Amino acid sequence: MIAEVVVDIKNKAVNKVFDYTVPEELAHLIQPGVRVLVPFGPRTIMGFVISLKEQTELQNLRPIKELIDVVPVLNDELRELGMSLSEETGSTMIQCFEAMIPNAMRAKYKKKLLCLSDTLSPNLASLFQNSRVIDYEQIPANLLKEVKQAIEHKQVELIYEVKDQLGKKMIKYIALVDPKLDLSSFNRAAKQKQVLEYLIAQPNPVLKSQLMDELQVTHAIMKTLVDKSVIKEIEVEAYRDPYADVVHQQSKALKLNQEQQVAVTTVAHACEENACDIFLLHGITGSGKTEVYLQMIENVLVKGQQAIMLVPEIALTPQIAGRFKSRFQNKVAVLHSALSMGEKYDEWRKILKQEVQIVVGARSAIFAPFKDIGIIIIDEEHEATYKQEEAPRYHAIEVAKQRAITHRCPVVLGSATPSLESFARAQKGVYRLLTLSKRAVSTAKLPTVKLIDMRQHSTVSDQMILSDVLQEAIAKRLERQEQVVLLLNRRGYSNFMQCRECGEVVNCPNCDVSLTYHKPNQKLKCHYCGFESFILRRCPSCQSEELRFFGLGTQKVEEYLQDQFRGARIMRMDVDTTSKKGSHQELIAAFERKEADILIGTQMVGKGLDFPDVTLVGVLAADLMLHLSDFKAAERTFQLLTQVAGRAGRHELEGEVFIQTYSPEHYVMKCVVEQNYHAFYVEEMKMRRRFGYPPYYYLASVMMSSEDYNDLIMACDKVNQYLRNQLGHSCIIVGPTMPYVGRINQRFRMYFMIKYKQEPRLRAILSQLLMYFQEGSVSLSLDFFPNQFN
Q1: Own/partner pairs, 38-43, CB within 8 angstroms, 24+ separation
Q2: CA dihedral 138, 141, 147, 152 (to 10 degrees)
Q3: Cys-Cys with 531: which of 407, 526, 562, 574 at CB 3.0–4.6 Å?
Q4: What number of other Cβ atoms are within 10 A of residue 542's Cβ?
Q5: What is the pLDDT of residue 25?
Q6: Which helix (H) or strand (E) segment is 93 a member of?
Q7: What is the distance between the alpha carbons of residues 780 and 132, in angstroms, rounded to a whole number?
């Protein structure tokens, strides 16, 4: 039998299947979708078995070395999806397959040196000492040449050990070897006898840790009894449960209003008809979209089918996960980045074993290995986080559409501020539009939104942080013991450090960006490559000591609020305060318990939070994203401001929103005040049509980078000629252009943007280009769903 295997090498040159013979002892175990270890050149590497066949035209095939999985980790659908995704995204098949499994299952390679001879040189003999195998990393640099010679003379062998990065969690139980044990021989060993009496009284094996705690027994006593073959240890696999300490009271379906009921019924009919329709659920903030999702899923579960619910990573709060756990209890698996590697692995295995019917998760949960999907729901469908920015550069919505066709099920895209592409498709009838125009709580109204023109309003201090209007509004809420949410979409303390003598800005040595000042640890940090530096005392250009901090970040606002509102409890939520495991969850829970009066944060405070006592939302520096050189700048600003405004007044108390801006006349700001998505859509579509952007054109990008600027420019000239010669006149080629950040991590960057309506040869042409640039100092990457060009 011959196995076709995709090997774990992320290079276009080997992006194909390789034939291996299946050893007789593995013939009944090898199946498509399992992982195996195979020889590849001098190495042993991991691979996925794609298919099995009886014959091949190739000669001298090498055998599979080892089987990793007993049960396939990729079913037929996911293998086909991975191969088509490889073609559509310009990625390798192995990159696509690895995106479908947890990080814990990705192979970890370790080089080791195996001793084959007893006549090694003294230097090498001292390395091995009493061992036959040593880690390659232990070899001193001055002995590498000697090691190479020893390999050539077959005195030592370089071997590759392949392992998963994580194993299963095992729990130890204790049981008697012989339940009819005579205890008379243990009369002089009181503790040992106590253990045995305890076990005799138990009908089933006992948890080892529980037994040792109850009887106050040491590990030495337990080992003695095992060595005497009186008791035995039994290892039982156990899942790591991230919600083990959280009690979820069973909740029941809420009564729906007319619009909600229409949405649920319409999608239920599509499910009954096995129609792979795509629905756009356009519901204002607070319109009860989550309850609609829950009831849509409930209808699917009744049929015995499964459901995938995607939520943006930034909005995957304990509130959302908690609502699903409360409604569906142990039928739910949750996948997101806040979980440990082991927790993600165990949640994924529940899905693989079909022990759950629902998965709630971020982008990668779209690859959940379900076999009978009845519905796929993507909440906040406009969010950029559904696009994977590293290879394979897939978009979760596009993958959802492919899976929906396979399973003959509907896809529901939900948002208060849909992407222009989605709403345009709904207007044309490509998507089916469902609308929720009212808030779910009948007494709740949309908040009043007011613009504060920072060109005219006075501020409380010269720092231009809070206008006097917003300052007074916060003070009123504090008096009434209500809560406030403030948004500033920029973390850190100050944006940059500049010399007042010569004007020099302190930049990152690796990237073309300024370093951001973080006050708590007195560091300057690069938010692109992670470079850190202590604060400079002298200007690196003119040696002046007149260095000053400029700009505004969430840390500075937090400090300012503590000074202005003494006694107020202030909480900050940004990447710096939520980096530790569980910290995001703890912050939200604390704010929900009213342990803080003011929550200041970046865009993560604007997504998926529902607090009944939040009556004021303030937006500081609302223009931050509006004037970026990005065709989606206006759309993203409107979406973020509308979403964060929706955090106010979601229940009985009325809400108010203040937006501080220097561009009050901009159509985005006016539409946010009116909370009028349709007006924004009309205005923005005019701009998109005028300049030739989606949804009027599709986009693809070719990003190029190199440590050598001259090499990059020469390569750009060649790519420019190739694209213009190969692509039809219907394509508009923009570039080569330097992105907003021209250098990241010591690599200069240039890109081409390709606008097209119909170009069937595009993927083939760009894939050929990718093959050409596999070697050399210039790297090239393709993106068929580009979200940004910075």
Answers
A1: 38/5, 38/7, 38/62, 38/64, 38/65, 39/65, 40/7, 40/9, 42/158, 43/109, 43/160
A2: 130
A3: 526
A4: 12
A5: 85
A6: helix 93-99
A7: 43
Phi (first) and psi of residue 32, to 5 degrees: -60, 135
User: Is position 499 annotated in a ligand binding site?
Assistant: yes
The structure tokens 């142990």 sit at 330
In the predicted model, what is the mean pLDDT of residues 409-429? Answer: 95
671 is an annotated ligand-binding site residue: no
Amino acid at 451: L
CATH architecture of the domain 2-106 equals: 3-Layer(aba) Sandwich (3.40)
Which pLDDT does position 160 carry in this prediction?
Answer: 64
Query: Tens digit of pLDDT for each residue in 250-271?
Result: 778 889 999 999 999 999 999 9
Widest distance between CA atoms in the chain: 95
- Specify whether the CB–CB gap between 198 and 191 falls below 8 A: no
Other C-beta atoms lying within 10 Å of the C-beta of residue 604? 23
Give DSSP secondary structure letters for 665-707: TSHHHHHHHHT-HHHHHHHHHHHHHHHT-TTSSEEEEEEEEES
Q: Which residues lie below 8 Å from residue 629, measured CB to CB, with a gap of 6+? A: 740, 789, 790
CATH superfamily for domain 448-492+552-688: P-loop containing nucleotide triphosphate hydrolases (3.40.50.300)
Run of H or E residues at 468: helix 468-479
Residue, of 773 and 693, whose pLDDT is higher: 693
Fold exhibited by the domain 698-783: Alpha-Beta Plaits (3.30.70)
User: In this predicted structure, what is the pLDDT of residue 170?
Assistant: 74
From 137, 90, 91, 93, select the one nearest 113 (Cα to Cα): 137
Token pair, residue 175, equals 């049981």
Q: Is 539 annotated as a binding residue?
A: yes
Residue 137 burial by CB count (10 A; 0-12/13-18/19+): exposed, middle or buried?
Answer: exposed
Q: How many CB atoms are located within 10 Å of the residue 528 CB? A: 16
Structural contact between residues 53 and 4, judged by C-beta atoms closer than 8 angstroms: yes
Taking alpha carbons only, the member of 460, 459, 552, 541 closest to residue 507 is 541
Please check if 502 is assigned to a binding site. Answer: yes
Give the pair of three-digit tokens for residue 351.
């899905």
96 is in an annotated binding site: no
From 3.90.180.10, 3.30.2290.10, 3.40.50.2000, 3.40.50.300, which CATH number describes the 258-436 domain? 3.40.50.300
* CA 106 from centre of chain: 16
For residues 620 and 606, is the Cβ–Cβ distance under 8 A?
A: no
Answer yes or no: is pLDDT of 176 > 90.
Answer: no
271 is in an annotated binding site: no
Across 579-623, the runs of DSSP E, i.e. the strands, are: 598-601, 614-619
- State which H helix or E strand residue 732 sits in: strand 732-737
SS3 assignment for 326-358: HHHHHHEEEECCCCCHHHHHHHHHHHHCCCCCE
Q: Could you give the 3-state DSSP secondary structure of residue 81? A: helix
Residue range 550-578: average pLDDT? 87
Q: Which helix (H) or strand (E) holds 73?
A: none
The reported pTM is 0.83
In angstroms, the Cα distances linking 95 to 34, 89, 99, 390, 767 are 16, 11, 6, 10, 15
Mean pLDDT of 626-647: 88
Confidence of residue 480 (pLDDT cuts 50, 70, 90): very high
Q: Say if residue 245's pLDDT is above 80.
A: no
H helix or E strand, kind and range, residue 238: none
pLDDT tens, 643-695?
888 888 777 788 899 999 988 999 999 999 998 999 999 999 999 999 999 99
**Confidence (pLDDT) at 312:** 86
Whether residue 200 has pLDDT greater than 90: no
Q: Is the pLDDT of residue 717 over 60?
A: yes
Of 10, 5, 3, residue with least CA distance to 96: 10
